[in-house]
Amino acid sequence: MESKNAIVVGIDFGTTYSGVAWALRDGEDVEVISTWPAAGSRTTPKAPSTILYDKNVIHWGYQTGDMAGTIQGVKLLLDDSHKPKYQPAAEARDFIRERETTPVRVASDYLCKLVAHAKDTLDRRFGSAVQFMGLEYVLTVPAVWSDMAKSASIVAAEEAGIPARHLTLVSEPEAAALHCLQSIQPNTIEKGDVVVVCDAGGGTVDLISYSVKSTNPLRLEEETEGTGVVCGSASLDERFKKHLKKRFGRKFEKIPRQSKQMAMKYWMETIKPNFTGQDGYPWCEKGKLEGDYFIPVPGTSDRWARDLDNGFLSISADTVKKIFDPVVQQVEGLVDHQMGGLSSRGKPLPKALLLVGGFGPSEYLFQRLKRRWSAVVQGAVQYGLCGNRVEKRIARKNYGISIHRPLDNQSPRKHDTDIYWCELQEMWKMRNCMEWYIHKPPNKFNTGKEVFKSCDMSADLRSIPVDLFEKRTNSKGKEYYVVKYEIHMTPKSASILFELVRDGKTYGAAYARY
């Protein structure tokens, strides 16, 4: 019999990162664990899915740091039906064989540490009362995993101290759908709607489509078979590493290990999440990207590789795009497959595509899927659209807004005074970068005297819910908040409307001061 005071603990055991959240069974608020051993003052919802055996001591998560012998990607080894293409997972398999152990045993050791940390967190919250509260565990697994892989996950959890009778498995995209459909605002999902969930994680990308049977309480029904491929964020890391090997050739083995790690860290933390591709470079000519990234590779000689200068390797945005494209194209193929499955079943076009997971925050992946998704949905909308009697309006001027961009996304600049150091985000930025909304025919404009400031816009951010502000802390311990929003510009018959928009919801007008 389930205890009313039971605590439900959700565990997301990922290929590259893992997380834990919990909630009281009779409560509504879900709390995510954001402090981890050896993480210092940083707060983050995930810890690295890494483990290191040091004699009789087991280090895990942030404790492993950059130490040699660290095992990564063991999750992928739980499914024998998929040969790991992720290099760290392949290396982990060889290491496990040498130790004469099994992937299940290693996964169990990691889960044991993860669960122990979760229990410590609950002990600090509830004190001795936690001993009288039942713990129910929910472990997420990829939608495309075989029954054998799911069984291996259960065994690993049991060996980590989780009783099988208190353990439930849930597919990762289903867990994502349940969370997103109950938390997105404004929530326009209604009974009968179809949604596609794209869980783009570090190792795998899983997609599945659901129809909404009821909204209160939320009930879903699968409409297509889940599909997935090992083409997650970690695949990009592998492609980047191969690019480095190609650039350095035989000299690659001479690069100090810490220098390689520094280069990979810059790729994973700066380039990979922020790269937007052509969609993010409105000043670029069609089919061409501009701007270079400079990757730190200390301890190297300028003669070791082309475009290597004083320990910084230059890599063009076009090259970054080539690293991304094969992986992103696989994700697009999965989306197309889901669309085809829905169409063959005579189902309506999906109302939403929910992009979640560790690969989900990639701006480039988001823009590519947004463009592909928009083409499908807009095609259906345009077919029956007849409400707007004015079919076309001609712009009298070019309209845009001046924004600040990270210096990595280099735009043509005339004055170095446009470059400044952002103390809070700890990065170089550039001011006076234009984001053009409307182009006057024939879609050409000057950058000289004909371009002038028309007005200053201001918006009241107090209308945005506080929980949408993301709290961050820089390396100096300074805290600041980040809130994502868009400025929507709508040409009217005799005016232009500017609105502050977040997740499709308008939070008031953006007022112009001329």
Automatic annotation (TrEMBL):
InterPro entries: ATPase_NBD, Hsp_70_fam. GO terms for molecular function: ATP binding; ATP-dependent protein folding chaperone. This is Actin-like ATPase-domain-containing protein. The lineage of its organism: Eukaryota, Fungi, Dikarya, Ascomycota, Pezizomycotina.
